[in-house]
Specification:
The protein has 212 residues and is α/β, with parallel strands linked by helices. Helix content is 42%, strand content 14%. The protein is built from 9 helices and 8 strands. The strands form 2 sheets. Strands 5-4-1-6-7-8 form a 6-stranded parallel beta sheet, with helices on both faces. It has a two-stranded antiparallel ribbon with strand order 2-3. The protein starts with a strand and ends with a helix. 38% of the residues are buried. This is HAD superfamily hydrolase (TIGR01549 family). It comes from Geomicrobium halophilum. One of its GO terms (molecular function) is phosphoglycolate phosphatase activity.
């Protein structure tokens, strides 16, 4: 059994896909006067907002700063679409009950962690967390998870990282950490090669109950 279980947030603990993509669509339409399909924006899931904006092919007259500001504004107006995935709280309670160290490594900034995630009431389960502004490099680079291991004094071979994107998987494997796919939030689960794959939080909870 692992001693440390580390979670991604977006698409793993809370469902933010509708909020993030819809708000970016609206922001881009207002700033560029162009329509962007959801499929063309799905790459933003799992990486920091600033990194996502840099990957957009924006018209020359539109700045990244302008898009980022408008996107942040739209996220506030669409935050009501965010929700905790069913079964997550019960899963965290079971893992905590087994005496495991629980943590978070996320592409959210410290500000977003405090203002967007903390209100859901899940932070009480986590003893350590790492946000995008805690490290110079970000997922899929291994630095965020390595920083977490150092911060929590955990060992890579005793840790498991749960996430929903290929960036999460690459980050875990590059850091020498086993990866579990959060199938309930993954967009293209067939593209992953995880050590574990769970369709629902309840399935992972049953796995935890049977693990020693």
């Amino acid at each position: 059994m692992y001693k440390t279980i580390i979670f991604d947030i977006d698409g793993t603990l809370i469902d933010t896909e509708e909020t993030m993509i819809r708000s970016l669509q609206l922001a881009l339409q207002e700033v560029t006067q162009q329509h962007y399909d959801r499929e063309d924006l799905s790459f933003i899931l799992g990486i920091p907002g600033d990194t996502a904006v840099k990957k957009l092919q924006l018209p020359d007259e539109v700045t990244e700063k302008e898009v980022r500001a408008r996107w942040s504004e739209k996220i506030k107006h669409h935050a009501h679409f965010m929700r905790v995935f069913p079964g997550i709280e019960e899963l965290l309670e079971k893992l905590q009950e087994k005496g495991l160290t629980l943590g978070v490594v996320t592409s959210k900034t410290q500000h977003e962690y405090q203002h967007d995630f903390k209100p859901f009431g899940l932070t009480r389960f986590f003893t350590h967390y790492v946000c995008s502004d805690d490290t110079r490099k970000h997922k899929p680079d291994a630095e965020p998870l390595i920083h977490f291991l150092n911060k929590s004094e955990s060992k890579a071979e005793e840790a498991l990282y749960i996430g929903d994107t290929i960036y999460d998987e690459q980050c875990a494997h590059t850091a020498g950490i086993d990866f579990a796919l959060a199938g309930w939030g993954a967009v293209n689960p067939e593209n992953h090669h995880p050590e574990f794959s769970f369709n629902q939080p309840a399935e992972m909870k049953r796995w935890a109950e049977s693990s020693k």
